[in-house]
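Researcher: First entry.
Model:
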Amino acid sequence: MFDFEEELKNLPDQPGVYIMRGSDDTVIYVGKAKILKNRVRSYFRKNASHTPKVTAMVSQVARFEYIITDSEREALALENNLIKKYKPKYNILLKDDKQYPYIKVSINEPYPRVFMVHRMSNDGAKYYGPYMGKGTIKNTLEVIRKIFRPPTCRRRFPQDMGKGRPCLNYHINRCFAPCTGKVSMEEYRRIFFDICRFLEGRHDKLIAELTEEMRAASANMQYERAAVCRDRIRSIRELMDKQKIVDTEHSKDMDVIAAAAADEIAYIEVFFIRGGVVIGREYYRIEHINGADKSEMITDFIKQFYADCDFIPSEIVTETEISDAEAIADRLRHLKGRKVTITAPKRGDKAKMVAMVRMNAEKALSNHKLRLLKEKEKSGVLEELMDMLGLSAPPNRIEAYDISNIQGSDNVGAMAVFEYGRPAKRKYRKFRINSVDGADDYASMREMIYRRFRHGLDEQEKIEAGEMNIRDAKFLPYPDLILLDGGKGHLGAVSSLLEMLDIDIPTYGMVKNDKHRTCGLVGKDGEAEIAAHNSVFKLITHIQDEVHDAAISYFRKLHTAIGSELDNISGIGEKRRTALLTKYGNIDKIKEADISDLAATDSMDMKAAQAVYNYFRSKDDMDEEAF
């Protein structure tokens, strides 16, 4: 039996971490203390004015333990690690496993490139970021490509200069085409130094240099170059007008944090300011806040969020004053290597910035409530579908499959995922069919389904063995319902396969009428017709359209990539490209063909065959993600 009075008497007056355990010995709360004796005793004092959360937690404590540390900074680090390990129910848990990306400019190479990476390296290149928010870095790279038109192909310079024709990007004015051999190394590198200045936010200096270059080019009657400079200046000014600029006098790196809460849900919003410019924003949903106030939520958020963050700003501005601000700032200084301040402004420009961030947090919370209402509506449709098909539970996760090809060439498949009646596009998967020649949709569907569940089984084994985190799984969980774009034939082919894999998931074919419109679902017990006015009809039609579009889009993208790949080969024009695709059907077979076989193709000769053969042996496979 745990003796509270005796253990409370023996608490040390040193810094450390305390661990509260429930009656089943589960860790229910982890905290840190500057003086363990004072902090832990405060929980068990009679008549103490605790918050509802603390009162509920204390009522469930069966025993506690503690770990002494050398300093409060060490206690903060240990507290964060133990929260991650135990995930206690009364701690505010930040579910954030993102790796924020950087933009890398490989200025250390003679012919640099600009692209996205997830980690910085000490390799002499220039790194910019990290970029927060999923679309921020893509938008930035898109702006760079629009203004500076750097090459994005796989050609290597200077080796590939003057070899082959420029790709499509040159013809649509999205690349300055160093592959033509008309761009000197000095000019090439100058464009990438301009990209660096742009990413560093030195827009005024960049505009001044471009203006001078434009005037010089115009004076020398180099009107084409002058026009390029003019267009870049115009694009940069347009971008500056759109960007939100704050604290222009100091141009600090700063994060601004605010929160909004209702019931047991809270949203914490963070604006990321770099060099005086808002480069991105992100919000984080926290569930089961157990009556915690904003100060406590933001305190716990900061401790967890910045513990593993690659970049820590010089200043963190918060909506409310946080507890342990000095100790947390000291730990962040230790992690960053230079001064970090945490402030909660009451007036002035920073207070206005906090108000704007809080407004965004409140909007995120409001959107969450609307989503809940829509999900409630969708759940009614899923329950109706459950009743129609005789399922034991609503199909909250539905997976649909479709095949696409042209006369049996380049068979591909797509998997669309619907969760709670809505498309989960990030969970869609694409497949290049490898084992099927010709237009055999049944065999193609079997291969796709087999690979999908084989991946899932492999991931399940790795998770059970501790080799994979479930968050990293791409094929788990399994669906509650499988829908196939096809009839009884598709259903029979897939059902026997699932039985062989020992997977018991309700499976139906989505039947279409003569007008190629959804008209029902066919299962092992027969066909169920769906009335056109029924809400289930609208859901099934949406699912069928989504998976069909996904398969067609992937086929077109792959086919375009094949054509573009062949266009890169010297001596291969439209006639020879068509002949190769007609004969071989797909790019993989062209890659595998020997020179004599290539030369025997209509309109090809030995020189063209040698060019195709050499090209594919000096190139990697296409950079296309498919499972």
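Researcher: Second entry.
Model:
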Amino acid sequence: MSHSASVIDKRAVRWETLLLAGLLIVTFIPFLSETLFTTKGEPREAIVAVSMLNQDNWILPVSFGADIPYKPPMLAWCIAVLGWLNGGEVTEFLSRLPSALAAMAMVMITFRFFVRRTSGGVALGTALILAGSFEVFRAATICRVDMLLTAFMVTAMYALFRQWERHKEGTWAPSLVAALLMSGAVLTKGPVGMLLPCMVLFVFRLLKGGHFLQTFVSLALSGILSLVLPALWYVAAYARGGEPFLELVLEENFGRFTGSMSYGSHEHSLWYNFTSILSGFAPYTLLFLIGLFARPWRGLKRGGGAFLAKLRSMDAVELFAMLATVLVFVFYCIPKSKRSVYLLPMYPFMSYFMAIYVRRLVKIGSGSLRVYGWILAVLGIVASVAVLLLMTGMVAPFGSGSTGVILKGFAGEGSRVLPSLVCYVTLAGAGVLIWILFRKSARGAALGSMVFTLVLYWMVQAAALPACMNYKSDRDMAARIDALTGEDDSLYSFRYGRMDRFFTLGYYLDDRMWRFDVDNPDEGVLVIAAHDLPSFTSDVAPGYVFAPVADLGRSGEVKADLTLLRFKRSE
């Protein structure tokens, strides 16, 4: 390559880096506070950070007066630090920010990883496809541990691959960078954060001719080093939590994998993982299916020879990406507990192969890219117009039940500038995409569709999700409970079920609620589901007198009517 070509390539990579960073910032940051907490998953994580700050306990805080966290503290630490910088207040925005930043870092590092080893077009396509995959978008915009865990694991794999590149002849040494990243993964969700990266690179190095013992020692040392920092926390947490903490750790890390947990946890059949990939990789699942009509395999040469020999002769990057995809999938097919987010470490590598697939469609001049682009453009126009009509009142809310409430939610969003503005931006983006499609450039159609996918997510976050979800939030109910109880009132809650709590209420009440079944208090105020009250008063609290305070209405989190009562132990 000439010097001038090298300069042009470096300049192009810089511009692509800036473009990608800007798109990621606009996609994942501005809308994090638009949707309230509505399900138990997000407030369950956020309340741990609230407890850390309230109790000044950064090792093993207690929520609801008795509950120790079910996961290691990395996400809670991140949220608590942000809350501390915010004057001690943990908001929805700050609770989701670690996931968004982790997703952005993972996409950018993925781009830099592939741009150094493949073409700029494939690297940029990989990054845009990764950011636009539904499962990645969802995990990046909610307060859960999954995106933080995925970012640590994926970047640890990249670090281990770079170590192999520097020492293709073999090395006994560990990778300190990978060990540090895997430490973050272990502190996010446990030893799986170390096992998976080491497993992928162990198989890869062996297939690339690595000596078994040398490879094992090198990766084992990396894995052992990654456990040093987590071990410090585990020891400190055990000193505070004792045997209950140890039992919880063993159940969450080993019982979940072996299916021997004391409670059911996301148990699904093997087919669940296949359907999760098909839905989670949307909208690119659709592009893949449309592209098959172009027969992108035509003209490709078929390699001969034994399967193992073909694997060993594969390009190193392609072999690495293939192994990461297959091994992660197979690993999570083993346990009974299955969730779509467990498969997130596959997505950067699936996105790489999808980018190669798109490059092939571009090369053969396939019209499937334009067909796919038209589908996205029409979808964006129809969705934007529909939302605008509902928000402006040109289409009056109709229907009953949740449908009517959601449509009223759209009408309520019409008084705000941001939802309407983003809808108009989406319409403009659809217009630009259509202009590109009329130019009949396969490459332009591919890039335009990838960018417009992110624009669609802007509308989803700014307009659709708030209207569809915020009515379910228990935030207003928490404010009412706060108004009905005095500063001297001790607030308790009760739910049947080992892990069931009023997590949304607990978060919005700043972790003021305690557990009745643990404390057995003499008097106070109780929040309970109305349908649980008869059995509760007879079986759990027969020695108490209860006086109703207020019917709180239906909880969006627990899907039941709640009631507020004052209680006192009878003499």
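Model: Note on the second entry: The mean pLDDT is 91.
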